[in-house]
Specification:
Length: 216
């Protein structure tokens, strides 16, 4: 499988775990990451800046860091979270770095590529859509149908999921992601939350079509 072109879809710790395994088999990896997180450090940064939630993208970059002292050291720094009780408490260094690059440069993929270069990343990390997203689900509960918005809230909701949406409902995909899917020989998905890390990848129309046309 050495050299096989692989696209890995997902988000959070599940995707990061998959990437750590895949890198042992091939260096041609493209991680396509969900961009709807609204909790923790990512959620706080989203509320302050009009940017992608950086957390899942940061974890994917760290999982694919260069396998030398430089890459591993920077990956560890990227994952470090500030302690204390101040406004920086809980923020990961990598989240702050990505937010700064995105605030400086209009194109978020350029920011991701710059961090990838710093970490000597194997492969490439891309967002699932060209714009930040929200997740909204309709659940059937003991009190009737309840609409819940937010990735963090949907992931912990009680009841039976009736429908799932992303907002905006038809976001554009990144052309780099569509190209990677078209070229892929293998495509992996997950593991992770079915509602917030897996299904959202099928709710981006251009990406869903690209996946349906893939011969991987």
């Amino acid at each position: 499988m050495l050299g096989t072109k692989v696209v890995s879809l997902g988000g959070g710790h599940g995707l990061a775990t998959t990437l750590k395994s895949l890198r042992q088999l091939t260096q041609n990896i493209t991680a396509i990451v969900t961009v709807a997180d609204n909790g923790g450090s990512s959620g706080r940064l989203r509320r302050e800046f009009p940017i992608f939630p950086p957390g899942d993208l940061r974890m994917a970059l760290a999982a694919l860091c260069g396998d030398d002292e430089w890459g591993r050291s920077w990956a560890e720094i990227m994952q470090y979270r500030f302690s204390g009780d101040g406004s920086m408490q809980g923020h990961a260094v990598g989240n702050i770095l990505l937010a700064a690059l995105w605030d400086r440069d209009v194109d978020p993929v350029k920011g991701l590529d710059r961090v990838a270069s710093l970490l000597k990343v194997v492969g490439r990390v891309l967002p699932m859509a060209a714009v930040p997203l929200d997740i909204e689900g309709t659940f059937l509960t003991s009190i009737g149908r309840v609409v819940i918005r937010g990735q963090e809230q949907v992931a912990s909701a009680h009841g039976t999921l009736d429908s799932l949406r992303i907002l905006p409902e038809s976001p554009p995909a990144r052309p780099e992601a569509l190209d990677a899917i078209a070229r892929a020989q293998w495509i992996t998905m997950g593991p992770g939350s079915w509602f917030t890390s897996v299904l959202p990848h099928f709710l981006v129309p251009q990406q869903r079509y690209a996946l349906s046309q893939s011969t991987a």
